[in-house]
Amino acid sequence: MKAIIFGAPGAGKGTYSTRMQNQLGVDVIAMGDIFRESVKQSTPLGKKVKSYVEKGALVPDDVVGEVLKERLAKVPKDKGFLLDGFPRTIEQADTLEKIAKIDVILQLDVPDEIIIQRLTSRRLCKNCGTVYNIRFLKPKKEGVCDKCGGELYQRADDNEEVIKNRLQVYKTQTEPLIAYYKKKKVPFIVSTTKSIDSPPEPMVEAMLSELKKLKLA
Ligand code: ADP
Ligand code: ZN
Question: Which end of the chain has fewer CB within 10 Å, C or N?
Fold first, then answer.
């Protein structure tokens, strides 16, 4: 399966994809994780992207395109992939189209009010990347990952000002991709979140069952 998980910042792309990864047997390629890791390690890529990521602005398409190509080349031949955070612009989608044919788009539809509430109280595991929320999706023990015991942290770009910018960028640059892929007749599976405290598991199960209907899971 070659798929994209699509939605606004904070819609739950990381939460869902880490939960689906094992059941689907795919490589999850999370562009933001790649950038954050390279910033942390201060690699040449990290130095290039740091200022964009800090402001919640998009990293230039040519840089992102190269990173994607390198990462896709590492996916084993018999394995599929799930892209999280790519494409984010029409130009990126055009680049992707030259490399791979996408089977399905998993679209997460979440109202803005919920997104803002979620992002400001989000925490992640330093070690395995699992996403928590100190208000709505708490770990069993405060500050500690349920899965691996790793320490939880807050992303530097999860503050109100940068969140506003990320949402704005999403609306102007990324949302038009919905029409782009509809026009190309790529199948969509849409998952709609109606309440701030709806747990991810039932929504993950519903998406997996839709994927089975499409014979992709
Ligand atoms: P979000 O929660 O906003 O979806 P991500 O972890 O996917 O966050 O991305 C974090 C940041 O990394 C973005 O705000 C942006 O600066 C950069 N980034 C990630 N993916 C892309 C992309 N496809 N194109 C350009 N910039 C990107
Ligand atoms: Zn963990």
Answer: N
Q: Per-residue confidence at 198, pLDDT binned at 50, 70, 90?
A: confident
Nearest residue (by CA) to ligand 1, atom 19, is: 32
The DSSP element (H or E) to which 125 belongs, if any, is strand 122-125
If one counts the domains in the chain, the total is 1
143 C-alpha to ligand 1 centroid (Å): 24
Quick check: CB of 12 below 6 Å from ligand 1? no
Two structure tokens written together for 101: 């044919």
Q: How many other C-beta atoms can be found within 10 angstroms of the C-beta atom of residue 165?
A: 15
Instruction: Answer whether 2 contacts ligand 1 (Cβ < 6 A).
Output: no
DSSP, res 185:
T
- Each residue of 154-184: pLDDT tens digit? 999 999 999 999 999 999 999 999 999 999 9
pTM, to two decimals: 0.93
CB 34 within 8 A of CB 71: yes
Does any ligand 1 atom lie closer than 6 A to the CB of residue 56?
Answer: yes
Which ligand 1 atom lies nearest to the CA of residue 92? 23
Structural domain for 31, as ranges? 2-213
pLDDT of residue 199: 87
Cα–Cα distance between 33 and 31 in angstroms, integer? 5
CATH of the domain at 71: 3.40.50.300
